[in-house]
Amino acid sequence: MSETTETITDISQYMETLGQRARAASRLLAAADTEAKNAALLAIADDLDKNRAELISENKKDLQAGKTKGLDSALLDRLELNNARIDSMIEGLRQIVSLADPIGEIFDMNYMPSGIQVGRMRVPLGVVGIIYESRPNVTADAAALCLKSGNATVLRGGSEAFHSNQAIAAAIGRGLESAGLPADAVQVIATTDRSAVGSMITMPDYIDVIIPRGGKGLIERISKDARVPVIKHLDGICHVYVDDEADPQKAFDVAMNSKTQRYGTCNTMETLLVHDTIAAEFLPGLAAAYDEKGVELRGCEKSCAIIQNCTAATDADWDTEYLAPILSIRVVDDLDAAMTHISQHSSGHTESIVSENITKARRFLREVDSASVMINASTRFADGFEYGLGAEIGISTDKFHARGPVGLEGLTSVKFIVLGDGHIRA
């Protein structure tokens, strides 16, 4: 991990060597016990704590370069490392130590008529490649999750965080070595050359899965060009449907929290669907509350007739992840109309129904095909921490191999195991 972008002239050869080292390290890491992995995580946390000054100094280089390039204030804020964010990285590492190690878990053991026992064992995926933008804390978070789940990892952060990521990588390497684990188990690509990404996503001999974290453009490109399986989500177009049998206060609370608790997250509601028979009574008060929060409303014809200062929604609005204080509202005839809208416009991330009718709610759970489906709850709960996973590496809207928040278990596979006592097949 000592090479820098200035000394790497042959990107293809560099990536080939990096992949070979990752594959070799993955075999050693798969055999490591929980105690060794936890010791490495704690050593990394201690190293980050001890070397705060260096982390902040390297981060300042990235911040200065970002200002020179004209990065906007939001991106610069995401890029910044300060003591509070270093504290958060350290706490994240220590929390992952407290999580149960999924590797080696044996389950579903059953005796077959032949007398053999058949079950499954949880195993690492192997080598996980992660491509991400801006936030340098992802380097520590992703490395820690992969390490605990027994996977080697190759990390490619954004060029805007190059110095920060290399400083964090050095701390990770020292922590791994102090625990007797191979430093190559976590490798942060030491070049800003974009061709490194092209190599990384076309190395199936060395990388088993790619996880892209970033904007839609990045994820679309990775998904299109990769020769390695990709765990991804492109959009977070989440819906809340308020049924005619909803409790009004629950509906108000869920609709407000789903949209306004945070605007720039993938589990924020972008479209509100309201049953026609309650819309005239329910929407004006809700719209007034949104107005106090500065939320712009864009609605269907019926919505605009009910709500003051509601702009007519375009066809594109129903398919837009705003990540901003903007909300689309549609009045629908019934549950079936709501589910039809969701099937046509959802990104498959998270949907919620607010209803006191358990029959309707169960239909919604069964028939809506998204990674998370909820009853009487804010879409903002669609999060690994809130689901009890402890931490997540991302949220997948794919159906294979992981779906929803991807925690430690999502970074594993299973193999069948068979126990016999000299059994032979007749």
Describe what you observe in this structure.
This protein is α/β, with parallel strands linked by helices and 426 residues long. The chain has 14 helices and 16 strands. The chain has a 7-stranded parallel beta sheet. Helix 14 (358-367) links the parallel strand 12 and strand 13. Helix 5 runs parallel beside helix 6. Mean pLDDT is 94; it is low at 1-6.
Sheet with the most strands, sense and barrel status: 7 strands, parallel
Main β-sheet, spatial strand arrangement:
10-9-11-8-7-12-13
Oligomer: single chain
**Tally of separate helices:** 14
Structural class by sheet pairing and helices: alpha/beta
Question: What overall form do the CA principal axes indicate?
Answer: globular
Beta-strand level of the residues, as a percent range? 15-25%
Distance between the termini: 55 Å
Low-confidence stretches: 1-6
Order of helices and strands: HHHHHEEEHEHEHEHEHEHEHEEHEHEEEE
Mean pLDDT: 94
Q: What share of residues is helical? A: 40-55%
How much is the radius of gyration in Å? 24 Å
Q: Tell me the number of strands.
A: 16
Kindly list the characteristics that best describe this protein.
single chain; 426 residues; alpha/beta; 7-stranded parallel β-sheet; 4-stranded parallel β-sheet; 14 helices; 16 strands; 42% helix; disordered N terminus
Task: Tell me briefly what this model is.
The protein has 426 residues and is an alpha/beta fold. 42% of the residues lie in helices and 19% in strands.
